[in-house]
Design brief:
Number of strands: 10
Helix content: 25-40%
Shape: globular
Main location: membrane
Largest sheet: 6 strands, mixed
Family: Belongs to the ABC transporter superfamily.
GO cellular component, one term: ATP-binding cassette (ABC) transporter complex
Number of helices: 12
Subcellular location: Cell membrane
Bound molecules: adenosine-5'-triphosphate, magnesium ion
GO molecular function: ATP binding; ATP hydrolysis activity; ATPase-coupled transmembrane transporter activity
CATH architecture of the largest domain: 3-Layer(aba) Sandwich
Radius of gyration: 20 Å
Number of domains: 2
Strand content: 15-25%
């Protein structure tokens, strides 16, 4: 079942000369982790903004085609152009590229409760959700902290927690680790995997760390100049290493090395991870 269906979507920001999205069509399937990669300026963030209606409701421009969001709980379908962002946000949660821009409260718990109060939920339900997201996001004990004082990884987990509290079926994360050190990066990506495995949340993840996407995504979309240029399973995308390189996408060393070894007929299978590379080399 598709939770999001995008059909022939094109978008040009107001006053921009060029289209930032050009005839984009794809679907997000329930329960999957869909990875999106592509060079800077290829339209990844713009695409994310269309998935919960911020484009075209809050950011305007020339919009054509459609984005249909389906609530897997009720089976109801919403065309984003006809549905307010507040409604769409309860199905599709979007964590923006820069988490600082999303945090504005005095404490961690206020930050999380803010969106819930706006939903008009009663006090008990707010408390229940607050406890749940503090627990899953690993922020328990930090309820009274001032968000700017948190570490990078904690800030990003808070941004995710605040969105998660709305109980969306789909979580869209736009480069959640781009400003983090390796430790913070592991914290955040670990949370994403947990949400997917243990809470059944569908994930759309824009990530320039291609190694993670190749290892954990079910499917990958590659964007360039506002269009989808490749779509497939990680192994299918890895086979296109030369195209990825040409687009300026960083490839993980295990893929680079195995690609060269395979080209020379030394191994038969590309390695998506270091473990696969090692076992390939050991069998030489
Ligand atoms: N608010 C805006 N107004 C006009 N043009 C914009 C706006 N935001 C983005 N663009 C343009 O749209 C295109 C796609 O930008 P977008 O931010 O979606 O790319 P991206 O793939 O997310 O890049 P990055 O990897 O750097 O985050 C770029 O050419 C960019 O300059
Ligand atoms: Mg971006």
């Amino acid at each position: 079942m598709n939770v999001i269906t995008v059909e022939n979507l094109s978008f040009r920001y107001r006053r921009a000369k060029e289209y930032s999205l050009r005839d984009v069509s794809f679907e997000v399937r329930r329960g999957e982790l869909l990875g999106i990669i592509g060079p800077s300026g290829s339209g990844k963030s713009t695409l994310c903004l269309t998935l919960n209606g911020i484009i075209p409701h809050s950011i305007r421009g020339d919009f054509s085609g459609e984005v249909i969001v389906r609530d897997p709980g009720t089976g109801e379908e919403y065309n984003t152009i006809e549905t307010p962002v507040a409604k769409l946000s309860t199905v599709v949660g979007l964590v923006l590229q820069n988490p600082e821009s999303q945090l504005f409260s005095m404490t961690v718990e206020e930050e999380i409760a803010f969106g819930l109060e706006n939903l008009g939920l009663d006090r008990n339900e707010i408390m229940r959700r607050l406890r749940w997201v503090l627990e899953v996001s690993g922020l328990k004990g930090l309820e009274k902290e001032f968000p700017p004082n948190l570490s990078g990884g904690q800030k990003q987990r808070l941004a995710i927690a605040a969105v998660l509290a709305m109980k969306p079926s789909v979580l869209v994360l736009d480069e959640p680790t781009s400003q983090l050190d390796p430790l913070g990066r592991n914290e955040v990506l670990g949370l994403v995997l947990l949400l997917r495995k243990e809470h059944g949340i569908t994930v759309v993840l824009v990530e320039h760390h291609t190694d993670y996407i190749l290892r954990f995504a079910d499917r990958i979309i590659v964007m360039d100049k506002g269009s989808i240029v490749l779509e497939g399973k990680p192994r299918e995308i890895a086979e296109e290493a030369e195209t990825l390189r040409r687009l300026g996408i960083n490839l993980p060393p295990s893929l680079e090395i195995s690609y060269e070894l395979k080209k020379r007929g030394l191994i038969s299978r590309l390695a998506l991870t270091e473990e696969e590379l090692l076992s390939g080399i050991r069998s030489l």
